[in-house]
Amino acid sequence: MLEDLTQKLENAFKKLRGYGKLTEENIADSLKEIRRALLEADVNYKVVKDFIAAVQEKAVGEEVLRSVTPGQMIVKIVHDEMVRLLGISTMDIKTAGIPPTILMLCGLQGSGKTTFAGKLAKYLKKRGRKPMLVAADVYRPAAIEQLKVLGRSLDVPVYDEGVGDPVKIAFNAISAARQQFCDTIILDTAGRLHIDQEMMDELVRVKSRVRPHEILFVADGMTGQDAVNTASEFAGKLDFNGVVLTKMDGDARGGAALSIRAVTGKPIKFISIGEKMDELEQFHPDRIASRILGMGDVVTLVEKAQDGIDQAKAKKLEEKLKRAEFDLEDFLDQLQQIKKMGSLESLLKMIPGVGKQIKNAQVDERGLVRVEAIINSMTKEERLNPKILNGSRRKRIAMGSGTRVQDVNQLMSQFQQMKKMMKQMKGKSLKGFGGMPFGLA
Fold this sequence. Notes:
This protein has three domains: 3-86, Up-down Bundle (Four Helix Bundle (Hemerythrin (Met), subunit A)); 101-295, Rossmann fold; 301-435, 434 Repressor (Amino-terminal Domain) (Orthogonal Bundle). The protein is built from 20 helices and eight strands. It has helices spanning 3-14, 24-40, 45-59, 70-86, 113-126, 141-154, 166-179, 197-210, 225-238, 255-264, 285-292, 298-308, 311-322, 328-340, 344-349, 354-358, 366-376, 380-384, 391-401, 405-424; strands at residues 101-106, 131-136, 158-159, 184-189, 214-220, 242-246, 268-272, 280-282.
């Protein structure tokens, strides 16, 4: 996410290495680099101007502690200002005292509203809520069908009346939600290719009729200042409560993320980081600032691990690790849990320092798929007792998994090294090790 901006900021910080104190002279060049990096990321000009002024005011004359370098000091100052720019605190979505909570989504066509509606439904469902999706976009037939498909895949009810009055559909959905004991309604409203008065009037009527507890503006994170300008228009007409940035896993320049709150005064509440239904994150300003500055995001990594881990299996695995008795069945289970957490590259970038090391390297996501295929090609006996894997068995496994015998040999070599390490750790504290997938503990 925002790798290009991260790289340019890192280059700016390098200019300060070797100095003992931050002065107007030795930070001037770095601030120019930071200004240029932000403008190239399509951040609003006024936002950049205020940001640089704030950093300069705090940085000039700042004494550098013996334990840090000027470069590290300026990173901290920039980080603190970026957190302030992004919103300081995490903002939750509102909930109604008496169900159902009504969440209304708005935005331009193509911003990803319908997909986000499905992601939000899954997000809420995992947190114990019972959402209902409402097809209020009656102008794009594919939107209604897409919402139905998402509902079936997520096992979430979808309310639709086909082509009709969006205001009536939204209002009727409230009664339907109560009848089905749904505590949250997600309204997927219509968008347009550009802002027009007819669309705005319709959204205002929907808002007036159903009185949503929360209105979320969904913006395409790849559109930079266009998203910010559109958000300003919607804020003036609808006075929405928060912003959702989609497509943040692409080559987004970051302008929308860094500008939209300062320009509209509305907090960012969610970011979409992939196409899968579980690739949605609550927006934490401090964590996003750390990612942009290449400092990793361990807290989110741990949260992803906790969400993807079966606690009963984790406890069982911890006991087996203590006895150094884990086998390829356990190994396969851990690989599958890693896959649930997201792409390997995105996970590695959350580890401080690792993101810089892999920025020019190609992370082979297919490696996990190959390993999984190899283990799945084994019999249960072979997984539980890998010692019986002779040459003929390995050849059969390679053919069955579409890999080479060398790949099978390499996997077994890595597995044996891991098992040897477990024996060396036998008897020592392994608290928490069973709760993290191999390679992330």
